[in-house]
Design goal:
The complex is a heterotrimer of chains A (284), B (283) and C (279).
Chain A lengths: L1 E10 L7 E11 L4 E5 L6 H8 L11 E4 L2 E2 L7 H7 E4 L12 H11 L4 H14 L4 H4 L9 H13 L5 E5 L7 H17 L2 E5 L3 H7 L2 E6 L2 E6 L1 H5 L2 H7 L5 H11 L11 H14 L1
Parallel strand pairs in A: 3-8, 3-9, 6-7, 7-8
Antiparallel strand pairs in A: 1-2, 1-4, 4-5, 9-10
Chain B lengths: L3 E12 L3 E13 L4 E5 L6 H8 L7 E6 L2 E2 L6 H7 E4 L12 H11 L4 H14 L15 H13 L5 E5 L7 H17 L3 E6 L2 H4 L4 E6 L2 E6 L8 H5 L6 H11 L10 H15 L4
Helix pairs in contact in B: 3-4, 3-5, 4-5, 5-6
Chain C lengths: L14 H4 L2 H17 L3 H18 L3 H6 L2 H17 L9 E3 L2 E3 L1 H27 L2 H12 L9 H31 L9 H32 L18 H22 L5 H6 L2
Antiparallel strand pairs in C: 1-2
Helix pairs in contact in C: 2-6, 2-7, 2-10, 3-6, 3-10, 5-6, 7-8, 8-9
The chains are: A alpha/beta (284), B alpha/beta (283), C mainly alpha (279).
Chain lengths: 284, 283, 279
């Protein structure tokens, strides 16, 4: 569980260029959450999550971040242990691949943890298989000759090989075509079986609505609130207050409701919308 | 004769030491002046190869690409071809040559050898057209992704081409940036009669175009107006999604409520409403 | 590195900003040479006065200018200290003594002058880069070097390369940060004290950086080709450099300053006040 209390963050403090990115953030992320973080570019989403594995250190007198019972504002931290526990996959993670074979690249994380070579290899194999790639076919190939989608999966495997308990994903489906997006999201749901807590930053409201159980809305460095998907997308007031756009399905539901049809405005699923329309037809 | 004409175009690129991967196979595409065409296909369908063929960055292995009658295989015509076709690429960070927005927009007309006064006029006009005038003096690094792409569009506009090719130009943007770029492109097509070939995998964007071309594993599998959405198989077979209103309409049809094929969210609402009001009790 | 003042244009509307970059470059060279002729506190003060006038005219906040000096300040301090410690003056008594170190008055003078000279040498280029965009500087340089075209020197290409490099440096710095963070997230440690280990630890950063730089270069080449680039041939510029009266006045002014400094140094007419003040 991650617990953020009153967290603030200032870039380039004590210089004329200082800009405050976070203002007193309070968020609790529970074990087993599929936690969504949404907000405009510059809302502080990336700054916030980079605290979770201490890539960004908590500044003095700027609140606290706890990952389970580890206080990240402490001076001395076991960074390796923390970074193994909180896996982080950045935007376009394929740009971090560097080694001459896929297997070696995926072994990089376990190697940094100081694990024996056998263990590194078996973890790499498990991770490559977990992301839906054929180990025998791909392990010996150069990561640079793979297709874009394969590269992204390899990069994901590179983080999963550290066996994280919490996985942070920053726009995991950016730049992928729609079918590929759906497949990747299904894969992430699979991963959730072994890595129970997932935190996802996304601009794609459809993904957020269909996969997350709780959603934090960030706006200019503050948390506007943490909501269940229906609570957020069903309330026009909340949406306007938070400047959130609707998932496409919800947009249709709202359009129908506005046209005078008796339909719940908080629908976030296509099949549900179909049922609701048919039902409205019956009782019209 | 069509303005942009790809006739039986084949293209393959080397992979490994002796292998070749076929990117395009006997592709035929035409784009007329003033048209707004969307070219859709999933990753690896050969869309980006096609963009680079249009203005002669690469030359087809077989077949021919002509722009206003000039073949791209004729090296001496390339300069004139590129005056007529502008290309906006995917990565907003990799298209700016200079550190100041207006200097970057000026890069194209400077290459055309225009007198300074005319360059200045074209730059101002182009920046106005994409709504970036107030950022003329800023550095590209300080702009958002959507703004950077609008600057890239201005850089193309300043050359005054007749066709603008957008090679997944919205692929790396957030929803706001995507809307900004799409609005600008639609405006240019409507007000300045600029022909647009928009390469994308966002179906909601493609639905804005007059004509949709579907590319699947290197071949054109469909080419037509928005009525293509009525035959959803052509999209799904090509590994593509459909706009959400089409998907819901399909599901309704499968459950016995046929509302036809809506071509926009608004049409969807109207169709459902009409259907429910018309024979509500009998569904 | 992000705070590096070189290449950080400070937009403002001032006569210094508007001045012809060619003149600014010529003045810079003249200024640098002049600083080397300065040898007395009087001439240093004289030069500093005109630098400050330039800064004032440029409307760039003094703090911003001084920030650019932050990085070299350490070097200046160290050299000054060393100079002070190791200066020996056989003709004078030390003014302070500690262990094996003796500090002489002339040593202090020499050290202060050295520091002052270094700061003057850095100040003006900083002002130049704060008041001119890299593009302007490239244009200026291209124009100044253009006579070299006749000996087939690729002046235009050189200027373009510089301009693109300046444009890409911030992007690459940002990219490096991102990759370092991504590898840190995979447990990579860059904090090792052993230099060999440190270099080895950088490989996972350098390779992705190279790969992406090549990709960027390819993309950029495509973008330039697509925008009708075909080298210097037939190319014109939007902002034609034009000499204005003010530019000529500024250049003449700085020539006068140079003459004055030379005068202070050589004191051709043997004026007493120069001899008296000329430490």
């Amino acid at each position: 569980m991650i617990s953020v209390k009153n967290l603030s963050y200032v870039y380039s403090p004590k210089t004329p260029f200082n800009t405050q990115a976070l203002f007193g953030i309070n968020v609790d992320i529970n074990d087993g959450d599929f936690f969504g973080i949404i907000g405009n570019t510059g809302a502080g989403k990336s700054t916030l999550v980079s605290h979770f594995n201490a890539l960004t250190r908590v500044q003095k007198n700027s609140g606290t971040v706890f990952v389970d019972d580890v206080d990240l504002s402490a001076k001395k931290l076991d960074l390796k242990k923390l970074r193994a526990k909180v896996g982080m996959v950045f935007q376009y993670p394929e740009y971090q691949l560097f080694d001459d074979t896929v297997e070696k690249d995926v072994m990089f994380g376990p190697k940094n943890l100081g694990l024996p070579v056998d263990e590194q290899r078996s973890r790499a194999k498990a991770a490559i298989e977990l992301v839906g790639l054929d180990y025998a076919e791909i392990a010996g190939r150069s990561p640079f000759e793979l297709s874009g989608g394969q590269k992204r999966r390899v990069a994901l495997a590179g983080v999963l090989a550290m066996r994280p308990e919490i996985l942070v994903l920053d726009e995991p489906t950016a730049g992928i075509d729609p079918i590929g997006k759906r497949k990747l999201m299904e894969l992430i749901c699979d991963i959730k079986k072994t890595c129970p807590t997932i935190i996802m930053i996304s601009h794609n409201m459809d993904e957020i609505a269909s996969y997350c159980n709780r959603i934090a809305v960030l706006d200019r460095g503050t948390v506007k609130g943490v909501f269940a998907p229906r609570e957020l997308f069903g309330s026009r007031e909340l949406l306007e207050k938070c400047g959130v756009e609707l998932p496409l399905v919800t947009e249709l539901a709202v359009g129908l409701a506005d046209a005078g049809i008796d339909i719940d405005r908080s629908i976030i699923d296509q099949d549900e919308l179909v049922c609701a329309i048919l039902k409205a037809g019956k009782y019209a | 004769m069509p303005f942009l004409h790809l006739q039986n175009v084949d293209y393959s690129y080397p992979s490994g030491e002796s292998d070749y991967i076929t990117a395009l196979r006997s592709v035929n595409i035409t784009v007329e002046r003033g048209e707004f065409v969307a070219l859709v296909g999933c990753n690896g369908s050969g869309k980006s190869t096609l963009a680079r063929l249009c203005n002669g960055l690469i030359v087809p292995d077989g077949g021919e690409v002509t722009v206003d009658g000039m073949p791209t295989s004729d090296k001496s015509a390339l300069y004139d071809i590129r005056k007529k076709i502008g290309v906006v690429f995917q990565n907003p960070d990799n298209q700016t040559v200079t550190t100041v927005v207006e200097d970057d927009v000026a890069f194209g007309p400077e290459n055309l050898g225009l007198p300074p006064a005319e360059i200045r006029e074209r730059v101002d006009r182009a920046l106005r057209a994409v709504g970036m005038s107030e950022h003329a003096k800023s550095g590209p690094m300080r702009l958002s992704g959507g703004q950077k792409q609008r600057v890239a569009i201005a850089g193309v506009l300043a050359i005054k081409p007749e066709l603008m090719v957008l090679d997944e130009a919205t692929g790396m943007l957030d929803p706001d940036g995507r809307r900004e770029v799409l609005d600008v492109v639609k405006k240019l097509n409507r007000d300045e009669n600029m022909a647009v070939l928009m390469i994308t995998h966002f179906m909601e964007e493609a639905a804005e175009a007059d004509r949709i071309i579907i590319l699947d594993r290197g071949s054109v599998v469909a080419d037509g107006g928005r009525e293509l959405f009525a035959t959803p198989e052509v999209f799904t077979d090509a590994g593509l999604d459909l706009p959400v209103y089409v998907r819901v309409a399909q599901k309704l049809k499968a459950r016995g409520m046929d509302i036809g094929c809506p071509l926009s969210a608004r049409q969807f609402v109207t169709a459902v409403k009409a259907r429910l009001d018309g024979d509500g009790g009998n569904v | 590195m992000r705070d590096m003042t070189i290449g950080q244009y400070y937009p403002a509307s001032s006569p210094v900003h508007r001045a012809d970059p060619r003149i600014k470059l010529v003045i810079l060279v003249l200024y640098m040479v002049t600083v080397f002729f300065c040898d007395s506190f009087l001439s240093f003060g004289f030069m500093t006065f005109f630098v400050l006038v330039t800064v004032f005219m440029s409307r760039v906040p003094l703090l911003k200018v001084l920030k650019g000096l932050k990085f070299v300040l350490v070097i200046v301090l160290i050299t000054t200290l060393l100079m002070m410690i190791f200066y020996t003056d056989v003709n004078a008594e030390p003014i302070a003594e500690w262990w094996i170190f003796r500090i002489y008055l002339n040593g202090v003078y020499a050290a202060v002058k050295l520091a002052w000279r270094l700061l003057l040498l850095i100040l003006m280029p900083t002002v130049l880069t704060l008041t001119s965009t890299p593009t302007e500087l490239c244009d200026g340089l291209e124009s100044l070097l253009s006579p070299l075209k006749f000996i087939k020197f690729p002046v235009h290409e050189l200027a373009l390369i510089m301009s693109i490099a300046l444009r890409l440096v911030p992007t690459l710095i940002e990219e490096t940060d991102k990759i370092i963070n991504a590898q840190k997230a995979r447990g990579a440690a860059f904090e090792s004290k052993n230099p060999f280990k440190k270099i080895k630890a950088m490989i996972p950063v350098l390779i992705p950086l190279f790969v992406s730089s090549f990709r960027r270069a390819d993309d950029l080449a495509d973008a330039m080709d697509s925008r009708c680039y075909r080298g210097a041939k037939g190319r014109t510029r939007m902002n034609k450099l034009k000499l204005r009266v003010g530019d000529v006045v500024a250049l003449l002014g700085w020539c006068a300053i140079t003459v004055c400094v030379l005068f202070l140094k050589y004191n051709w007419f043997g004026w007493g006040f120069i001899a008296a003040w000329g430490l």
